């Protein structure tokens, strides 16, 4: 999985996961362009560290409940004329007032408590008092909360004022792709099936989905294995107790992206097209899926 960025990226924050996890997303016969691997495949059986205990799951659920409440609060307040830093302040204050910790703040040097990605920003937008939301903007607000040592991660898209039909459709199709992906979360399925149904659906609408940045394990830490890849029948086996995010980043234009060379965080579409993202944290259960936060 080669980077399509013109600038260096914070690899862990971009959710690529470990080398073993990337290898697990390959099909037999695929080549991994690292010089030492050729035609690599793995069985993709999760180790015990990726299976949450009942106690851990309960802690993650509580973090998820707070995380969802933060996004609900943002939904009630977000509007044209406010700055993206205003959103950060709202999210930060609500988090700490309810006993949580904003996970992004200080993570690998990230300077704010939430990510705010507007229009052609794909992800990791840094809230800015000078970035004022305008009528017609689309924005992703990404929130990760730590509560009693457990993590939950979700993001939503918000339409500001009178949004054009093209932007609205992009946001709706991205959300619909997540709804379809949730149906693929079931015991003994493959992680790649989740990403595959997303890719298939958004491609039908003429969009592209990022394969280099995506869903990841979460719960005991901010970013864990596995990485949610996009090939059917590949990736890690889904086992009850696994917790991970589903977070497609869908571009109106090409998949190519770059990272802001000044802040070294914000990822933009290479061609300036709009991008949308929705993110859920989910758990694999004995009979399907549990949504932890949305």
Description:
The N terminus is likely disordered. 26% of the residues lie in helices and 21% in strands. It is α+β, with helices and mostly antiparallel strands. Helix 2 crosses helix 3 and helix 4 packs antiparallel against helix 5. The relative contact order is 0.20. A hairpin with a 6-residue loop joins strand 7 and strand 8. The strands form 5 sheets. Strands 1, 2, 4 and 5 form a 4-stranded antiparallel beta sheet that branches.
Short description:
This protein is of the alpha+beta class. The protein contains five helices and 15 strands. Helix 2 packs across helix 3 (84-97).
Radius of gyration: 18 Å
Shape: globular
Based on DSSP secondary structure assignment, what is the total number of beta strands?
Answer: 15
Beta-strand content estimate: 15-25%
H and E order? HHHEEEEEHHEEEEEEEEEE
**How far is the first residue's CA from the last residue's CA?**
28 Å
The low-confidence parts are 1-20, 26-42
Mean pLDDT: 88
Helix content: 25-40%
Oligomeric state of shown chains: single chain
Number of helices: 5
Structural class by SSE content: alpha+beta
The biggest sheet, with number of strands, parallel, antiparallel or mixed sense and barrel status, is: 4 strands, antiparallel
């Amino acid at each position: 999985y080669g980077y399509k960025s013109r600038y260096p990226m914070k690899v862990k924050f971009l959710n690529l996961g470990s080398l073993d996890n990337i290898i697990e997303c390959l099909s037999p016969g695929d080549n991994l362009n690292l010089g030492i691997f050729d035609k690599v495949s793995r069985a993709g059986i999760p180790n015990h560290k990726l299976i949450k205990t009942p106690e851990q799951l309960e802690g993650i659920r509580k973090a998820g409940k707070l995380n969802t409440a933060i996004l609900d609060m943002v939904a009630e307040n977000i509007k044209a004329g406010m700055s993206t830093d205003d959103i950060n302040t709202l999210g930060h204050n609500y988090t700490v007032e309810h006993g949580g910790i904003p996970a992004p703040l200080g993570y690998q040097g990230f300077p704010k408590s939430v990510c705010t990605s507007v229009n052609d920003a794909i992800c990791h937008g840094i809230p800015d008092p000078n970035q004022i939301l305008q009528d017609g903007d689309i924005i992703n607000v990404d929130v990760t909360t730590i509560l009693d040592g457990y993590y939950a991660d979700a993001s939503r898209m918000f339409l500001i004022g009178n949004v054009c039909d093209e932007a609205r459709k992009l946001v709706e199709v991205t959300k619909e792709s997540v709804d379809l992906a949730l149906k693929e979360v079931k015991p003994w399925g493959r992680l790649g099936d989740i990403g595959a149904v997303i890719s298939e659906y958004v491609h039908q609408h003429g969009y592209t989905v990022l394969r280099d940045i995506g869903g990841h394990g979460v719960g005991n830490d901010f970013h864990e294995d596995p990485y949610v890849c996009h090939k059917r029948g590949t990736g890690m086996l889904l086992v009850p107790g696994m917790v991970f995010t589903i977070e497609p980043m869908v571009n109106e234009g090409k998949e190519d992206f770059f990272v802001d060379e000044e802040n070294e965080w914000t990822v933009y579409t290479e061609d300036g097209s709009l991008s949308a993202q929705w993110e859920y944290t989910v758990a694999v259960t004995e009979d399907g899926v549990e949504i932890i936060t949305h």
